[in-house]
Amino acid sequence: MNITFIGGGNMATALVGGLAAKGFDTKGVKVVEIQPEARERLKNAFGVACFEHASEAAPYGDIVVLAVKPQQLREAARAVAPNLGAELVLSIAAGIRLADLGRWLGGYPQLARCMPNTPALIGMGVTGLFARPEVDAGQRAHAQRVLEAVSEVIWVAEESLLDPVTAVSGSGPAYVFFFIEALERAARGLGLDDGAARRLAIGTFRGAAELAARSPDSPAVLRERVTSKGGTTERALATMRTDRLEEAIGRAVYAANDRAMELGSELGRD
């Protein structure tokens, strides 16, 4: 498989690095990046071929990964369009719908779109992925292989479902960081020093998430096992229920979903 990345930022770097770590031959990778420092860094780190302009990287190979910011996607699409043949075009840019991307590519049909999240930067992400019907099984496998270099991949049946993926996992790390901050703050308020507060908060999140990932039981069952009748956990959870924390989290996710839909409309304007 030969891959061309348009954009050499954090996500492209993570994907190239993840592929290299899994034994992928990076001689089959090209990167188009306007910043000379970034080109040099990628070339030195992974041995990939780097170019300043998209036309210089043609032919692109099996898959073109558009790894640019949403505001840059229209320009990037128009730069690659003249040299497309039968490649799969995979967009990592948040919010841009495939109908708009396809229009900017002159009606090109073989498109896929994904929504990764920031833990992909350390190889622990989770990514929602959608492909148009014109994308064949081989191209789907290519897209999955690229993304699995840094994340778990979850296929969705409709492109619109990438909005809730964005609301849950795309924005989700910020929710987790917010909760960690709150735990840290409470720990410090109870007299623990800064270092202990942080280690307790992060270690608890890390361990609980890993336990949930490995256990065949649901999070609800795991929660019940921690909650002894009349104990400390029961009282804490009672307070959260009184404050309607679950409802507040639900409202937050729905608000993020609404904003994802709005951004799709805003960013796709010509």
Quick gist of this model?
The protein has 270 residues and is of the alpha/beta class. The protein has 12 helices and 8 strands. The model has no long low-confidence stretch (mean pLDDT 96).
Explain this structure to me?
With 270 residues, the chain is α/β, with parallel strands linked by helices. It has 2 domains: 3-163, Rossmann fold (3-Layer(aba) Sandwich); 172-264, ProC C-terminal domain-like (ProC C-terminal domain-like fold, Orthogonal Bundle). It has 12 helices and 8 strands. The chain has helices at residues 10-21, 36-46, 54-57, 73-80, 98-104, 137-148, 162-170, 172-189, 194-214, 219-226, 232-242, 245-267, and strands spanning 3-6, 29-32, 49-51, 63-66, 88-91, 111-115, 125-131, 151-155. Strands 3-2-1-4-5-6-7-8 form an 8-stranded mixed beta sheet, with helices on both faces. Strand 5 (88-91), helix 5 and strand 6 form a beta-alpha-beta unit. Helix 7 (162-170) crosses helix 12 (245-267) and helix 8 packs across helix 9 (194-214). The two termini are 33 Å apart.
List the helices and strands and how they pair.
Blueprint: E1 3-6, H1 10-21, E2 29-32, H2 36-46, E3 49-51, H3 54-57, E4 63-66, H4 73-80, E5 88-91, H5 98-104, E6 111-115, E7 125-131, H6 137-148, E8 151-155, H7 162-170, H8 172-189, H9 194-214, H10 219-226, H11 232-242, H12 245-267
Parallel strand pairs: 1-2, 1-4, 2-3, 4-5, 5-6, 7-8
Antiparallel strand pairs: 6-7
Helix pairs in contact: 7-12, 8-9
